[in-house]
Specification:
The protein is an alpha+beta fold. It has one domain: Gcn5-related N-acetyltransferase (GNAT) (Aminopeptidase), CATH 3.40.630. Helix content is about 30%, strand content about 20%. The chain has 7 helices and 7 strands; from the N terminus they run αβαααββαβαβαββ. The chain has a 7-stranded mixed β-sheet with strand order 1-2-3-4-5-7-6, with helices on both faces. Helix 1 runs parallel beside helix 6.
């Protein structure tokens, strides 16, 4: 049987908290073009008109401040960075759900659920970026698995994701899938808890404890 390239890549990845990586490595993953270079993982942190008011350079600066890149002694960071053969190839934004103001005002996480929006015990994995040249190799799957351990080890009672569900036969544009797909969350142990829109799911893994 031929080896699965996605499984092989995932097994070879070294994934670290973002503050243990350099700003240069983070920049290589996001690049300066396309949706990643434009957004710099700032959509969920800047709701309403505040996102559009920022330049790409300002968004990149905010990302670097929030990750505390290059400061391994930092008390907090906002995500994970994956390396393949010492090349930075993947990013996952994961931290307490309250860190994302846009989630608080969106109906997607809360539709059909009676949930405390201010609970800091529930974490969220909201963004996945794979560096150009390393896509379709299982990087996001490995990052989702690592996000589970990252959140659990830091005291989260649960971790949520909000993946996009595409109609059968419809190809995804990259900008649609930065939130991840249902399959990468399923493979990391998440289960669907709600289906608030035809194209968006809420998936969750509970670790126990207070919420």
């Amino acid at each position: 049987m031929e080896p699965n390239p996605e499984t092989t890549t995932a097994a070879a990845l070294r994934i670290v908290p973002a503050n243990q990586a350099s700003s240069e490595d983070l920049g290589l993953i996001f690049g300066t073009r396309g949706e990643p270079g434009h957004c710099q993982c700032q959509w969920f942190q800047n709701p309403g008109k505040s996102f559009g008011a920022l330049t790409d350079e300002e968004r990149a600066h905010r990302l670097r401040v929030r990750t505390a890149c290059g400061n391994p002694r930092a008390a907090n960071t906002s995500g994970l960075i994956g390396y393949l053969d010492d090349e930075p190839v993947g990013w996952c934004a994961v931290e307490p759900r309250t860190a994302y103001p846009r989630l608080r005002t969106s109906r997607i996480p809360w539709s059909g659920r009676d949930e405390d929006r201010d609970s800091e015990d529930v974490w969220a994995a909201v963004c996945f970026v794979t560096r150009t040249g390393y896509r379709r190799m299982g990087v996001s799957r490995a990052m989702a698995l690592a996000a589970v351990d990252f959140a659990r080890d830091r005291g989260a009672s649960a971790l949520e994701g909000y993946p996009m569900l595409l109609p059968e036969g419809k190809a995804a544009m990259w900008g649609e899938m930065y939130v991840g797909s249902r399959s990468i969350f399923e493979e990391a142990g998440f289960t669907e808890v709600s289906h608030p829109t035809p194209r968006r799911l809420v998936m969750r893994i509970d670790f126990g404890g207070a919420q």
